[in-house]
């Protein structure tokens, strides 16, 4: 009897067996592939991540309980209105406009949903002050829109308009003041508020002159108010992760840092639109001039004030400070030993006095490092922050990527064993992804390079200005001396550093910081 | 259904190749505890973009999506490779691929952060693989080459 016939009696023939299990060798080959994949991956992971514990940002801090805080907003132009939005207040007609756009456009639907989902901060806007009547009226309308309705919806009490910031700061109806004026009025308004016992949220940069920087620090400390400088970058997730990596010496000794600002459109170069309703009757020009040198009424100067040193701090105070503050929070840089600046008005020959191209070098000999800043308002080439160190370099933006240096001492063994690949991204953090991981796939590398537009907390997109204001409000409510992350000491360091660069630019010489006598020489 | 020898070989090779792809994709995700579809879902385009973004941003939904994805791919791959519950596997695979396609449709005017490895207009590799699974579903081979043969063998022999 044939074998197959014998098997037939049992039900399954040898042929059936072979055909039934024909694909087992294929599974074996796949298993081998998976084994190789897993071991490569583990090699990569163990190469760098072993022993390093990156600190991921925690979720949105809960609101501290307390009575409703009554806010006064000085300056309800572009930035002032953005801050009010981050607090939850926008013009009713803006809500109508968003709703109408949302009906047909997904982007606006998301935009509206995100705003509506933003948590109420238990505040009221009780006072507004702006030298331009239209801006003041808009501030009042937005401030009364407590329930985030359109024009036909229910409104809360309309905030009172104060004609001068002195009156607003003296008002018993205001607990805390938000300063969103041009640069030259930051300190005068902030000090008026502090002297009246009001807490202060002041837009960056802290000051317009060196002298008032010292005065601001003294008054804020003497009065004991809660002060927060408006560097919302303090809330950026990737900076917090970068800080934890650097503290664990992941990239080694840092010798050079390069930060930049690049823009290439009239708005980015501060050539803002001039409101057709603005004129000498609707603007309190004298109050706008404040401590600045007198100049006859000029709509151009009023709306494009950033283009003149008379009211502005230029690229150094306006935009470099964003970069500096990011690094100061990550590295605790403090005030540099010296600064040297150059640049000029090379593109926007429109009568402005502040340069549109600026280069600055700050030396930190006690830290053995240099901080370089370069900016142009006529090229949009994207350049992130680069922190260069002996073992690796870090590219920082919304995302964070660490590239291993070929000549690293710390990772020499791993490089020689082929566990780590030099000059390649070995570590990345992308906001919105839950975990930190070594980069192992082309997709991850691509994402690390491009980044995502959203910043997440607990999986939700959050406005960093909202977080920054929230931190300030929480400190006020704690009422135990707690200061927010960008307090007056951080603001002082930021302002002095920017002024050193500005003075160097003006005087075409290197400036130095005399740390003992606390003065710029 | 009767197949020619060449036809049978072609169908089995197609089934094994598709199964290989599914199984490997699935196992790589299963073996990586940190893998998540979040970034991919956030990068969605097309008319279902908001649904996929909702999945990505919902803390209770995302782990389920990730689990179903990783294990779905693995089990579909296994069914095709071993030739067991093959038609069900092919159907499940088609459904999965339909979701992938709808999250990243190859429509003109939609740009993705994920790089593509070719140029596509409506038809892309996801859709072609979906059609391959349709062929595998329509022309089953697991009862000839595959574990399903054992059932087939039992059924064709009298007790």
Overall average residue pLDDT of chain A: 89
Percent strand of chain A: 15-25%
| Spans of at least 5 consecutive residues with low confidence of chain B | none
User: Could you tell me the number of beta strands of chain B?
Assistant: 0
The helix/strand series of chain B, from N terminus to C terminus, equals HHHHHHH
CATH architecture of the domain at 69-233 in chain A: 3-Layer(aba) Sandwich
Q: Which value, in Å, is the CA radius of gyration of chain B?
A: 18 Å
Proportion of helical residues of chain A: 25-40%
Transmembrane segments (chain A): 21-38
Domain Gfo/Idh/MocA-like oxidoreductase N-terminal (chain A): 149-231
Keywords (chain A): Membrane, Oxidoreductase, Transmembrane, Transmembrane helix
Pfam family, one (chain A): GFO_IDH_MocA
Give the tags.
heterodimer; A: 521 residues; Rossmann fold; ten-stranded mixed sheet; six-stranded parallel sheet; 17% strand; globular; B: 159 residues; mainly alpha; 65% helix
Outline the structure in words.
The complex is a heterodimer of chains A (521) and B (159). With 521 residues, chain A is an alpha/beta fold. Chain A is built from 18 helices and 18 strands. Chain A has a domain at 69-233: NAD(P)-binding Rossmann-like Domain (Rossmann fold), CATH 3.40.50. Chain A has helices spanning 3-10, 14-20, 24-48, 78-87, 92-102, 106-117, 133-144, 165-170, 186-195, 210-223, 237-247, 285-289, 299-303, 314-331, 412-416, 442-450, 464-478, 488-507, and strands at residues 69-74, 123-129, 160-161, 176-179, 199-203, 227-230, 254-262, 338-344, 357-364, 369-376, 385-389, 392-396, 400-404, 425-429, 456-457, 460-461, 511-514, 519-520. A ten-stranded mixed sheet of chain A has the order 14-13-12-11-7-10-9-8-17-18, sandwiched between helices. A six-stranded parallel sheet of chain A has the order 3-2-1-4-5-6, with helices on both faces. In chain A, strands 15-16 form a two-stranded antiparallel sheet. In chain A, α9 (186-195) runs parallel beside α10 and α14 (314-331) crosses α18 (488-507). The longest helix of chain A is centred in the first third of the chain and has 25 residues, at 24-48. Chain A is globular and about 100 Å long. Chain A starts with a helix and ends with a strand. Chain B is an all-alpha fold and 159 residues long. Chain B has helices at 5-31, 38-42, 49-57, 61-82, 86-103, 125-138, 148-156. The longest helix of chain B has 27 residues, at 5-31. Chain B is globular and about 50 Å long. The two termini of chain B are 24 Å apart. The model of chain B has no long low-confidence stretch (mean pLDDT 90). At the A-B interface, α2, α3, α6 and α16 of A face α1, α2, α3, α4 and α7 of B.
């Amino acid at each position: 009897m044939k074998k197959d016939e014998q098997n037939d009696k049992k039900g399954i023939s040898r042929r059936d067996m072979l055909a039934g299990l024909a694909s087992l060798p294929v599974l074996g080959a796949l298993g081998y592939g998976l084994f190789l994949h897993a071991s490569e991956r583990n090699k990569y992971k163990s190469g760098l991540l072993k022993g390093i514990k990156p600190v991921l940002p925690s979720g949105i801090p809960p609101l501290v309980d307390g009575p409703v805080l009554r806010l006064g907003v000085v300056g309800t132009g572009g930035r002032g209105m953005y801050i009010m939005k981050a607090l939850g207040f926008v013009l009713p007609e803006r809500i109508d406009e968003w709703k109408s756009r949302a009906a047909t456009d997904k982007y606006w639907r998301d935009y509206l949903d995100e705003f509506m989902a933003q948590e109420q901060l238990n505040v009221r806007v009780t006072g507004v002050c702006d030298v331009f009547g239209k801006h003041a009226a808009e501030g009042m309308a937005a401030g009364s829109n407590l329930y985030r309705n359109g024009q036909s919806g229910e409104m809360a009490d309309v905030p009172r308009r104060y004609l001068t910031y002195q009156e607003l700061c003296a008002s018993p109806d205001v607990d805390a003041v938000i300063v969103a004026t041009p640069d030259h009025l930051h300190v005068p308004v902030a000090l008026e508020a502090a002297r009246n016992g009001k807490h202060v949220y002041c837009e960056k940069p802290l000051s317009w002159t060196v002298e008032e920087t010292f005065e601001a620090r003294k008054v804020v400390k003497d009065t004991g108010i809660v002060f927060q400088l408006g560097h919302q970058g303090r809330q950026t997730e990737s900076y917090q992760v970068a800080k934890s990596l650097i503290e664990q010496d992941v990239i080694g000794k840092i010798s050079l840092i390069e930060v930049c600002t690049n823009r290439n459109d009239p708005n980015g170069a501060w050539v803002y639109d001039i409101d057709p309703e603005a004129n000498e009757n609707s603007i309190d020009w004298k109050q706008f001039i404040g401590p600045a040198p007198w100049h006859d009424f000029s709509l151009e100067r009023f709306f494009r004030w950033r283009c003149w040193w008379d009211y502005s701090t230029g690229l150094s105070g306006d935009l470099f400070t964003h970069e500096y503050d990011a690094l100061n929070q990550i590295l605790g840089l403090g005030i540099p030993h010296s600064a040297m600046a150059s640049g000029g008005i090379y593109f926007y020959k429109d009568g402005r006095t502040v340069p549109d191209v600026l280069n600055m070098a700050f030396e930190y000999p006690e830290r053995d490092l240099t901080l370089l800043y370069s900016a142009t308002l006529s090229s949009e080439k994207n350049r992130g922050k680069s922190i260069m160190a002996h073992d690796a370099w870090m590219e920082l933006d919304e995302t964070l990527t660490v590239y291993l240096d070929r000549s690293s001492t710390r990772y020499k063994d791993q490089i020689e064993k082929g566990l780590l690949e030099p000059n390649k991204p070995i570590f990345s953090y992308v906001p919105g992804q839950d975990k930190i991981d070594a980069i192992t796939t082309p997709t991850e590398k691509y994402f690390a390079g491009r980044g995502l537009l959203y910043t997440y907390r607990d999986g939700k997109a959050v406005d960093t200005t909202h977080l920054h204001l929230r931190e300030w409000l929480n400190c006020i409510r704690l009422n135990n001396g707690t200061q927010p992350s960008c307090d007056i000491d951080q603001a002082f360091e930021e302002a002095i550093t920017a002024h050193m660069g500005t003075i160097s630019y003006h005087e075409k010489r290197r400036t130095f910081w005399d740390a003992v006598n606390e003065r710029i020489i | 259904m009767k197949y020619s020898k060449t036809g049978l070989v072609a169908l089995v090779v197609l089934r094994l190749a598709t199964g290989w792809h599914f199984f490997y994709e699935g196992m790589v995700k299963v073996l990586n505890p940190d893998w998540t579809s979040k970034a991919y879902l956030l990068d969605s385009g097309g008319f279902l973009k908001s649904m996929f973004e909702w999945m990505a941003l919902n803390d209770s939904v995302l782990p389920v999506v990730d689990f179903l994805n990783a294990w779905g791919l693995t089990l579909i791959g296994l069914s095709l490779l071993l030739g067991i519950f093959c038609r069900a596997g092919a159907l499940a695979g088609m459904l999965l691929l339909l979701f992938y396609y709808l999250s990243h449709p190859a429509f003109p005017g939609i740009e993705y952060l994920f790089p593509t490895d070719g140029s596509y207009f409506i038809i892309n590799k996801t859709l072609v693989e979906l059609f391959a699974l349709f062929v595998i579903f329509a022309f089953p081979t697991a009862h000839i080459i595959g574990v399903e043969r054992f059932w087939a063998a039992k059924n064709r022999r009298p007790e």
